[in-house]
Amino acid sequence: MERRMSRWKQTIQEHVPLAFVFLCTMILFGRVLLTGEALYGGDFALYFYPLKEFIRDHLLNQGTIPLWNPYLFSGTPLIGNIQASLFYPLGFLFYLMPSDQAYGYTVMMHCLLSSVFMYSFMRASSVSKGGSLLSAFVFTFNGYFMGHLYAGHLTFIQSYIWIPLVFHLLFRFVQSKAFEYTLSAGVILGVQILGGFPQIVFYTMLGAGFSVMLYGLISEGACRFRSAFRLGAGVALTVGIGFCIAAVQVLPTWEFAQLSTRAGGVSYAMATYESLHPKELLAFLIPEIFGNPVDQTYWRSGEFWHFWESCGYAGILPLMLLFIKTEARSFRSLRICFWALLLLSLFLALGRFNFFYPLIYQLPGFKSFRIPAQILFLYIFAVAVLSGMGLDRILQKEWSWHRMFLPVALAVGLVLATLTFFVHYYPYDFFLFLFSKFADQPVSGANLAGLSQKVSLSVDRAFLLLLAGGFLLLACRYGKLKARFMSLLALGILFLDLFLFGSQFVRPYDPFVVSDEKEAVSRIMPRTPSQGRVVTSGSFFRANDGLRFGFPSVLGYDPLILKRYAEFIAASQNWPYDEHLVNLEHLRDPDAKLLKHLNLRWQVHGKTLRRMESDLPYAYLVNHAVTKPQEMILSLMGTEDHDPRRTVVLESGGGGKMQPKTAEAGLRSCTVLSFAPDTLSLKASVQAPGYLVLSEVFYPGWIATVDDKKVDVLAGNYLFRVIPVDEGEHVIRFRFISWSFRIGIGISCLTFLIALFLITRKRRSAEKDGRG
User: Fold this and answer.
1) pTM of this prediction?
2) Three-state DSSP class for residue 772
3) Which of 335, 400, 535, 739 is buried most deeply by CB count within 10 Å?
């Protein structure tokens, strides 16, 4: 008991410096914490808020999580949407309180955990408390993280914080050669996957694998082949366990991805969309040189979201600490490893501006993602590690200047001094040069009135911070300042630097006040697809407002869209098929013939509600079926000769028993008995055998019964559910069962229990050996 109390006391003393980070977090989020106001996040309001509220309401009302989302894209598998982060352990707040409040508290919780994890990783790497604290602060409050917070990228935040733990456990595996650390790393990787941002996971695995192999080979030296094999096996085991832990989400997402617009990967143009331009490296020193989307002063690109995808600002002082040299052998391998990681992340972030990227694009995984600049989080992580190690060496008085420090510092100082001079004394020439050399397009959309002051202050601040950092290092180097006092000043300067820049991204607001007009329109809209679907246009409704207000919409916004649905919509509008479609916000021709299959009944344009006429009901019976190859179906359906009320087009080789052709078929009546996201019940009176065509999207997992007898669910008219029915009165039930989800639950639970058992047994064995 006494030993355990002593261990707890030691742990508390060890983490006392984190009180500084806790205080900074409370200052940064103080207004949100004290007033209970919602925290602003662009994509959170547009995308995650409706999603989380839908899940929460369904869970509270039905007692289960929804597997199907009937309100967007005329129906889409929610269980296959990894960004819903249904099973992320730290997403529990979204089930306990309204989602707008849960976002702010979740972000605060993740900021604190991010600091704890980074601090623990650095302390485990033998870095002093001061150096570890600086690393934790850089990793948590850098411009890249804060920009994504403002953008409302909930899944980025949920996935980002686990990076230090993955690296920590894998580095322990290298040092100890004990495979139980790979088990723990795999569990953490699984949690990161459940966080819902696959690209972060991919880059984490890439960076961790690269770093572990490099660190292990440098550290061990001899027996390179055997070491490489063991290290590779450890990384592979970690990845395998991670995906097995997250199988409950991975398998449904993989199933959906194979049927989505992302199937087979994306084109090179899409894979290099939002690459880091070399010119944007200037913002790594002067973060607001290109303006800021918060006050609409961002000017370098017409796409304002490019700001947070390319904002690699980690502070001025941490960049200076990168050049602290040490002779300590224990740190040499780590420095080489993280310098390599830093350079690798910048190299890959360049994307289409990288001469070698066409070759990189051919490597496994790179075809699956866009926005190469998103790997900058590994650059931030490397800067946090190296700058913390630099401050540690200063505190240990075991340091010297790297030979590159003086020329780099002088060059940067000269650039900042020149910019400071011209922005104050020749502002016209300064901005003319800046706009002509750095803008992607003519500067017109930005808030030019506030831009001059924004850029001037940013240049001045960067120059003053460079002078302050240089003064601290020189004073400490020549004995004019004690190392511990210098570290306190360094932390203070860093806090001031990152706080002044990052605090503007923490904006409490009330985004969910619904105008009277919108509320009135949403009240009279249909609530189920059987009552008719809705198409919206103009700025009155946003793409995912169907989910937010509970009306079935043919539109939506999501990175994963069913490929057949995208092709169906494109064919209806005579658009060329866009394989990179993520945002379906409007339709050019809502009255198109093909759209009548979607039971489209209402159009909202601005505040005007129009009822649309259609001769195709929600459910109807046809007496004839033809089979055609998939690529011919849409063109056939678009012809004047095709009458969908008489003939359904099935797919060649689609399976199912063909009904005999009858002279006449039809429904005397068809009534929807009950509707829920995952179930649908109808009562139909059929006067002759035929095919019941339902205006619902076909997807694997939907099963149907007619009078409690299972029947095949066919894909008809390219996109829709079709079942054969006989003459008579029938009760028809549809139910969505995701077998990938059920199999995934078993794999996840089994993997977690095995990993927990092995880790616990190993720990108990180690404790017994220690007592012995």
Assistant:
1) 0.93
2) coil
3) 535
Task: Give the DSSP per-residue string, 159-177.
Answer: HHTTHHHHHHHHHHHHHH-
Q: What pLDDT, in 10s, does the model give residues 673-705?
A: 999 999 999 998 888 888 999 999 999 999 999
User: In degrees rounded to 5, what are phi and psi of residue 580?
Assistant: -110, 20
Q: Measured between alpha carbons, how far is residue 392 from residues 175, 281, 389 in Å?
A: 21, 27, 5
Torsion region of 85: left, alpha or beta (phi above 0 gives left; psi -120 to 50 gives alpha): left
Q: Please state the separation of Cα 621 from the chain's center in Å.
A: 43
Burial environment of residue 177 by CB neighbours within 10 A (0 to 12, 13 to 18, 19 or more): middle
Q: Are 691 and 648 in contact (CB under 8 A)?
A: yes
Average pLDDT over the chain, rounded to an integer: 88
Mean pLDDT of 175-189: 90
Could you tell me if 563 and 582 are in contact, meaning their C-beta atoms sit under 8 angstroms apart?
no
Q: Are 734 and 720 in contact (CB under 8 A)?
A: no
Which range among 180-194, 293-307, 320-334, 444-458 has the greatest average pLDDT? 180-194
Cα(612)–Cα(215) distance, rounded to whole angstroms? 65
Cα distance between residue 98 and residue 433, in whole Å: 49
- Confidence label for 771 from pLDDT (cuts 50, 70 and 90): low
Cβ pair 381, 139 in contact under 8 A: yes
What is the fold, at CATH topology level, of the domain defined by 619-736? Maltose phosphorylase, domain 3 (2.60.420)
Report the C-alpha dihedral over residues 706, 711, 712, 718, rounded to 10 degrees: -10
For the chain, the structural domain boundaries read 1-161, 180-263+738-772, 274-353+360-481, 516-611, 619-736
| CA–CA distance, 209 with 239 (Å, rounded to integer) | 10
CB distance 196 to 82 below 8 Å = yes
Confidence of residue 416 (pLDDT cuts 50, 70, 90): very high
Residue that is written with structure tokens 């502070």 in the block: 315
Q: Mark out the alpha helices in 478-626 (DSSP H runs).
A: 483-502, 516-524, 545-549, 563-573
- What is the rounded end-to-end Cα distance, in angstroms, of the chain? 17
Spatial separation of the C-alpha atoms in residues 722 and 704, rounded to whole Å: 10
SS3 content of the chain, % helix, strand, coil (to 5): 55, 15, 30
Any residues with CB less than 8 A from the CB of 30 and at least 6 apart, and which? none
Residues with Cβ within 8 Å of 340's Cβ and at least 6 positions away in sequence, in order, are: 210, 211, 214
Residue carrying structure tokens 């946003």: 542
Name the pLDDT band for 4 (thresholds 50, 70, 90). low
Q: Which two tokens stand for residue 7?
A: 């261990």
Amino acid at 624: H
| Of residues 230, 242, 102, the one with CA closest to residue 178 | 230
Question: Looking at 317-413, which runs of residues are DSSP E strands?
Answer: 324-325, 400-401
CA angle 709, 710, 714 (to 5 degrees): 140
Two structure tokens written together for 743: 């199999």
Average pLDDT in the 75-83 region?
A: 95
Reduced to 3 states, what is the DSSP secondary structure of residue 561? coil
User: Which residue is it, tokens 């989307």?
Assistant: 293
Element (H, E) at 69: strand 68-69
Distance between CA atoms of residues 363 and 674, nearest Å: 49
Give Cα 678 distance to the centre of its chain. Answer: 26
The 3 state secondary structure assigned to 34-67 is HHCCEECCHHHHHHHHHHHHHHHHHHHHHCCCCC
378 or 686: which leads in pLDDT? 378
User: Which of 370, 371, 390 is CA-nearest to residue 382?
Assistant: 390
* Cα–Cα distance for residue pair 351/197, rounded to 1 Å: 20
Structural tokens at position 575: 């658009």
pLDDT-derived band at 651 (thresholds 50, 70, 90) equals confident
DSSP calls for 689-710: -EEEEEEEE--TTEEEEETTEE
**Rounded-to-integer distance, Cα 541 and Cα 604, Å:** 8
